[in-house]
Amino acid sequence: MLTEIRNVQFGDFLLDRRLRELRRGDAVLPISGRAFDLLSFMAANPGRPLSKAELLDAVWPDTAVEESNLSQCVFQLRKAMASGVEGPIKTLAGRGYQFVADVTEMDTTVRPGHGTAKPERFPSLAVEATETRVFVQQRIEEHISWRLSLGWILAGVLILAAAGVLGWRWRQRWLDQTSGPPVDVVLTPVDGSTGDPVLDRALLDALRMDLEQSPFVSFVSPSRLRATLTEMKQNPDGPMTAAIAREVCERTNSQAVLHGTVARLGPHFLLTEDATSCVDGSILAEAKQDAAAAEDLPDSMEKIAGTLRRKLGESRRSIARFDVPLFPANTASLEALKDYSQARAQERQSRYVDGIELLKKAVAADPGFAQAYYSLAAYYRSTNDFTAERQAILKAYGLRDSTSEPTRRATIALYHSAVTQDLYEAERNYQEWTELYPRSAQAWNGLSVVERDLGHHKEAVIAAQRALDLRPEIAGLYPNLSYEQRRTGDYKGSLATCERALARGLDTDYVRDQLLQTAYDLHDPALVQQQRDWAAAHPDAVYLRIEEAEIAITEGRFKDAHMLIPQIAEYMRQHGQAGVADRLVLAEGINLVEVGDVAEGTRLIRSVPVDPKDDVSVMGMIRVGDFAKAESSLRAMQAEFPQGTIWNAFLGPQVQAIIALATHKPAEAIAALERSRPLDGRDPIIHMMLADAYLAAGDPRRAEEFYRQVVEGPVQDPDVPEVPLSWLGLGRALAAEGNRPAAIAAYQHFLTRWSHADQDAIYLKQAKQEFAKL
Length: 774
Fold this sequence. Notes:
alpha+beta; Rossmann fold; Serine Threonine Protein Phosphatase 5, Tetratricopeptide repeat; 6-stranded mixed sheet; 5-stranded antiparallel sheet; extended
């Protein structure tokens, strides 16, 4: 039986299907078996577009392979035929390939299993042996060719891969390359004028906001700048010469002075900014931008900021990541910027009400101005308008992805504080913020506050210390750190922090308040008297007076507290702080009820309006026995804030426990309070209430355990009534256990703490009677 085999001729090439060879003249071209099959199939379908899927099915039937195998075979064929980019095989972009050469088929006749028919000069056995030898030789040559081709392919792939890896690594290093460590700069007012003094200040604020999103460039704060100029006996509001700016730079351990000019040429403007070294005055970076009109000035300032960041040495990756335009496109940003800048000026004078009106104008002019909405929310919080604060922060939160990363983080933090009230989410946000901006005092201080609210005082100390190290000129950071140090039992560290503030001239009511409490903790009567003498010389030291009232309550000196609380509240009302005064009265009324002065505490609580959405008001309701009203408010707030950490995990369990204890259900109180255990570091009241519940349940040993956690814990502040009350409770628990000597010692601790208490104080009378029986 004879079979036809059609070889294929195209151009100078012969595709020999019997020998599975591609030849050019007498030369056999090295191609793999798969490449031969591919070329054979394509040559059998000349001129027809062939999809990649069709070619894969034809060459690799019943085998799942990648398209890269097909591409490699085409590459091999083109290389073997030295046919340039395409030659007879044309690439159809996105579809497949097409064989475009003219094809001539050549008919030959063969027996099954034999080669081309030739005159038989040998017996059939010899012919078969020859054909076998040819076949074996063909397979050996094909194998060698395939191995050589594969070797070259693998070598090429490895070289390309190595080059790719090296290129990728070089690019990453190039993107991350900086000229050195981050820089601190002193920003000085611009020379020249746009013709509008408000716009001049606004442009400086725009430059500051643009540069503040850089983790690489940090500013000396305006407050620190003013304090440094005062130390230099220079007018903080006066002109700053180059020599003065350089000295400020040196005193603040900064690296550069940033100074700009603005020149007006008809309707056009030329903006320049130079960064000069504090060491030798040399120029470290400079940038210039033209603005065709006043409306183009903010955009020009943004471009200047980008140029300065790059020339000061910030990495390309950092600039690309933290480079959000101050304003969205096509907005009335110039007027918005001017209003925002004036609001910032009002903020520096604590004139938040005026600032709010200006910020309203800014967001009216530019509804996409996310930073203005955030500032508006912050100003509302400063005026205790929490409803308006929530509305503003919701606007800012909706625009958060259109603003700079620091503002975005600050917005998220305030959103979780005011809207979701999810402290754990706020904590996560602040942690990420400090990782992105490790030199942001705002981020570290925010983290310290949320860690305090969660009862994580060791972590709060670390964050508060970092914030203070970054901004030592801010007075409020010292009492924050001092408070946390006392909460961890580091009384000497707290004292050192307060003394550091005084040494810098930051002698404020807040600092003296912490110093008074630290003096009590250290049992230093002379230091206590110094703070009282200072308060006597400062009639406006309202926080020291609040501290004195709370110490009086904690020591059982109720008559002193009765006298102080109305005086402080009246002072606040006279100074426009009626809401704060009402909250103070509520808080002190709650404290009085807790320490046994129920009649006066109840009178104070009922003397002021309560807000069912306020946590202090809800606690006031529960302390005066308005259980149904308190529970209703609690449920409403838990529904409104399903993720609210305080409402659900702290305040809610307390309300339920107080009601359970009042109705003689200690087991229910214990179950409720157990839900607050993750936050028990926030306030010792959780441990004391658990101890009270176990004592009421007839389990004095467990009560003793929780009382000891209070009296032996780090919190021994003079304004924490849970400490002396827990000594009394411990004495009762030990007496119930039959441990008379230890019970006597516990009662003595309480009586010492209340040695100056009113003689008719209920807990003092009870303690004396119980102690007498021992």
